[in-house]
Amino acid sequence: QVQLVESGGGLVQAGGSLRLSCAASGSIISIPVMGWYRQAPGKQRELVTSILSTGNTNYADSVKGRFTISRDNAKNSVYLQMNSLKPEDTAVYYCYAFKYQAYWGQGTQVTVSS
């Protein structure tokens, strides 16, 4: 069982930055995939970015060059640095982990004002 707790969401103006954190209940060394999804009002949940235990990453086209995911095994945490935020980035952001099954955090709201 993996429990995930996100933090760091909030309200920011367009062009600003936020850093989301996701703390896991135990060691993440053996978790093959971790990452972030987001869900905007009236839209389906979409993959934002993921990071493998090898350190390989992938990003949605809409966030490439603006968002950076990182993983700190010593702190059992994953981070999402979001720069040059746009109003269309407004959503609830969910941390996830996949090890035999998917685990989800409770979500953190990110609101970008124009």
* SSE series: EEEEEEEEEEE
Provide the β-strand percentage band: over 45%
Mean pLDDT: 96
Residue windows where pLDDT falls under 50 for at least 5 positions: none
Whole-Å distance between the termini?
40 Å
What is the global morphology? Answer: globular
Number of helices: 0
The main pleated sheet reads as:
7 strands, mixed
- The helix/strand class is mainly beta
Computed Rg = 13 Å
What is the β-strand count?
Answer: 11
Helicity, as a percent range: under 10%
Plain-language structure description:
With about 110 residues, this protein is mostly beta strands. About 0% of the residues lie in helices and about 55% in strands. It contains no helices and 11 strands. The chain has strands at about 5, 10-15, 20-25, 35-40, 45-50, 55-60, 65-70, 75-80, 90-100, 100-105, 110-114. The strands form 2 sheets. Strands 2, 4, 5, 6, 9, 10 and 11 form a 7-stranded mixed beta sheet that branches. Strands 1-3-8-7 form a 4-stranded antiparallel beta sheet, with no helix packed on it. β9 and β10 (about 100-105) form a beta hairpin. The protein starts with a strand and ends with a strand. The mean pLDDT is about 95.
